[in-house]
Amino acid sequence: MFEFLFKLKWFFKENKGRYISILLVLLIVNVLEVIPAQLIGRAIDFISTGEITTMLMWQLISIFAAVILLSYTGGFLWQYLLIGGAVKIESIIRMKLMRKFLMMSPSFFEKNKTGDLMARATNDLRSVHQATAWGVLTLIDSTTFMGTIILAMGITVSWELTFYALLPLPLLAVIEAKLGRKINAAHKESQEAFSHMNDSVLEVVEGVRLTRSYVQEEPEGERFKGMTDSYLNKFMKVERLDALFQPLTIIVTMISFMVAFGYGAVLANRGVITVGDIVTFNIYLNMLVWPMFALGMLFNILQRGNASLTRIDTVLETEDDVNDDGSLIVQDTDMNFDDVSFTYPLSTCQNLKSINIELESGQTLGIAGKTGSGKTTLIKQLLKYYPGGEGRLIIDGMDVAELSRVQLREKIGYVSQENILFSRTVEQNIRFGKPEATDEELMEAIRLSAFDSDLKRMPEGLGTMVGEKGIALSGGQKQRISIARSLIKNPDIMILDDALSAVDAKTEKRIIDNIRESRKGKTTIIVTHRLSAITHADIIIVMDDGEIAEIGTHTELMQNNGWYSTQSMYYQTGGVS
User: Fold this and answer.
1) What is the spatial distance between Cα 197 and Cα 211, in angstroms, rounded to a whole number?
2) Tell me: the pLDDT tens digits for 157-200?
3) What's the rounded Cα separation, in Å, for the pair 474 and 481?
4) Do 91 and 14 sit in the same domain of this protein?
5) I need a surface site. Which of 277, 278, 298, 406 has the fewest CB within 10 A?
6) Do 237 and 363 sit in the same domain of this protein?
7) Is 414 helix (H, G, I), strand (E, B) or coil?
8) Is the pLDDT score of 574 beyond 60?
């Protein structure tokens, strides 16, 4: 049970002042809360002996009211501090998870589904919050309050009666410990089922158009119903185990009440204690119901929190497989692929084979080839997305492994095939490449990307919301906003990864001409299926099955009678071979 608290010892150590204050205030509140029972017992004894007076009654009532007021104030203070600590640790862990998600390489997301990661960042984090708030609350409150009440029962009434009345308690602790272990295992299964269900929801939402086009609504609904039922069954298993705690607590408490009334009556007949003492003792015993019940909740909450924290720690402790120890900074952009070979972490075959390219700073490299030939894989090596393979990738005379990943990517403007846009305005999406850009730089990037005419037709102009993932825009508009986002950065190396596939030939020519004119002296890499986009390139390579099948200029490749010349002739004749 206490494994959860041990895992968070770093937080409690950093915030020891907060938790020492909580403990001190709580101890004061606990002492105050046992005083009313004493006042009630004394009042009964004063009434039975005829010693009660109006003045004495008002004194007792005044003390009672003052104690209640002080208890309320202290209770508010320590709970405020405790819940504040839980919110703080939740924020810290959430930020750690976000940093982990932002810094991990693509292979991490290939091994971990998005729905599962979201479940850990939401549902599991909520369980951790509950454990650090109500779990720690019940731990501190139940133990200190129980200790205070037991001392008050023994000192002010009778240690003998206290001993016999509390004999059933160890049995409850043993049973609850066993139940806690079962809850821990069941909660892990429940959270895993929730992760699978969450991932399924994401797939359904993202693929809803495809599902409708293939009339698969009912099969998908049945599949999701199966996942929901699985989660429900596993969750209810946790709740069934949880439901056993309260009845156990009530049974043990009732046994203690029976002992207290029976043996208390015997002691009163012997003159060892008074009737007022019996009333006071039973009030104390009734007050023990909360800490007894809280102990039951404590096992449950901490076990759930521990299971969730273990799942979160699994993510936080995952090491990135891309080495980022490099500290050297790129100045020039000369690059050399020296016999580079690479295999994806989950692949069973080699994805790049003996790649050799020399590209001087300021030159344009065109990359063509069939689908799945390795074009994007080659680019990802330059972006340092995956662990380095065999051979060396040299930039500015330095191996990529020696370069800082952040510093390297700051030199690069990358427009990917996916054209990812945020659910923000057009302007905010473009400025993402350079938040501090001037209005002149913004408009120049829009002109260079040939998006200016589209912008004029938008009612809200730059303030137009693009919708989630750019759903309100056409494919060509999304591509041009992505290109503008890269151009506004004015990077030393610009990479267009099949970024012109959704625009017409006239718009493509305008964009390419603008890039050639604006990026003189800077390196540009264009990956494309449409060969007209790279006819001007200084070097063109044709990829095939992870290898360079052809290399040269447009003129040289047209004379080779290879794939490049065949494809060029095919498109020149309008697709008629």
Assistant:
1) 17
2) 888 888 888 877 777 767 766 776 777 678 778 877 877 787 77
3) 11
4) yes
5) 406
6) no
7) strand
8) no
